[in-house]
Amino acid sequence: MKILFAGGGGTGGHFYPIIAVARALRDIAEREHIIAIDMFFAADNMFDENILSEEGIHFINIPSGKIPRYASLHFIVTPFKILLGIMIAFWKLYILLPDVIFSKGGYSAFPILVGARILRIPVIIHESDSIPGKVNTWSGKWARRVAISFSESSVFFKNINIALIGNPIRHQVVGGNLSEALDEFELEENIPVILILGGSQGAEIINESILDILTDALSRYQIIHQTGKNNIDDALGRSGIVLEKSEFKHRYHPYAFLGESDLRNAARAASIVVSRAGSGSIFELAAWRLPAILIPLESSAQDHQRENAYAYAHFGGCDVIEETNLKPHILLSTIDKILNDPQKIQKMKLAAQEFAKLDAAEKIAEEIIKLGIHE
To answer: Which tens digits make up the pLDDT trace of 139-171?
Structure first.
C-alpha cells in the first residue's frame, strides 16, 4: 500500500501530526499483519530530513507558492510557481499512483491535491485549527474524509464524512520520568517549573518577556525555555548579563530546541506551560494535563491561533494573553495567579484531560488503511 502525506508549509504544526500518523500506520500494519506500507511526504521542503529518514518516509519535492497577504512582488512570481507545482505534482502522482493521500492542508499541499482531484486518488484531510485554512476549505468539499481538531470548525465543512478526532500528537512526547527530568535539567526539587514553548521556530516576543522577568521569576520558580534555534545565542547572552550576580541563575535552562525525549521529560517536571497557540502545541499540553498560558501569534493566517486559544480557554484549559497585552509584569502576575490557586490548577488539569484526544493518530491511520483497501 502506498500512502502519500501532503502539507507542511515550513512549520512543525503540520509536519509533526503527519509523523504521528505515519507511526500509527506502521503500528497498525504490524499488528494487523497488513502488507508493507510505503510512505511518501510531498512538500516544497523537508522540514526535518532526519525524522523522515528515521521513519523511512520518502521525500518528494513539489514546488509551490504562498500567496502573500500584503502587496508584494511575490504576487507576480507565485502563480507561476503554483502552476509549475501542479504540473510536477500531476506527473509524479501519475507515476507513483498512491492508494491514499493524507493532507494537512497549507499552501504546499495545493498542487498535490489538484493532481489528486484530476487523477481521482482518494484523499483524507485533517484540519488542525478552529478556523480552517483556504486549502482545506476547498479540498473539504470533495475529500473522502474530513477530520477536525476543534468542534468550532465543523460549520466550515459540508462534507458528510466529517469527524471530530482532535489533533494527532506523537506519543513519544507524552509520559516522561520525573527523576530523569530532575537530573537532565539539573532541577531543584519542590520548586515550581515554568516550561516556555514558542513553537518549532521559537517566539521572539515571548523570549523578550521571559528575559525581562528572569531576575524576579527565578527567585521562586525554575524555567525551562525553548527559545528557537535562531534565538538561543541572544537568550544565552542576555541572560548571562542579567543573571551574572544572581544566586538563582542556575534555575534558568535555555535550549534552542527540545527533542522528543527532552520535551517529554520537561513536561513531566513542569508546573505550568507558557506557549504559542498552534493546534499541535495545545493538544500536546492538553495531553500533559498542564495548566497553560497561551499567547497567540498576532499575524497567523485567518487569525487561527487566537481562535484556537479562546476555544481552549472556553473549555477551561488555559488563560490567554494577547500579544498587544504581553507585558513582563502581566505575564509574571498571571503565572503567579495560576500557581497560587490550587483549585484553578485542578480545574485546568481536568479540562485538559477532557479536551485531549490521545487516539487521534490511530483513528486517522485506521481510516487511511480502510480507504486504501476498499478503493
So the answer is: 999 999 999 999 999 999 986 789 999 999 999
CATH ID of 172-355, from 3.40.50.2000, 3.40.50.1110, 3.40.50.300, 3.90.1150.10? 3.40.50.2000
Task: Please state the pTM of the whole predicted model.
Answer: 0.91
CATH architecture label of 2-169+358-374:
3-Layer(aba) Sandwich (3.40)
At CB < 8 A and 24+ separation, what contacts does 28-37 make?
28/362, 28/365, 28/366, 28/369, 29/369, 32/369, 34/1, 34/369, 35/1, 36/1, 37/1, 37/2, 37/3
Q: List 294's β-bridge partners, or say none.
A: 275, 320
Phi-psi region of 302 (alpha: psi -120 to 50; beta: other; left: phi over 0): left
Cell digits of residue 354? 477532557
Tell me the C-alpha distance between 139 and 103, whole Å: 9
- Quick: pLDDT tens for 84-108: 999 999 999 999 999 999 999 988 9
Which residues, including other chains, have CB under 8 Å from residue 371's CB and lie 6 or more apart? 99, 100, 122, 124, 144, 145
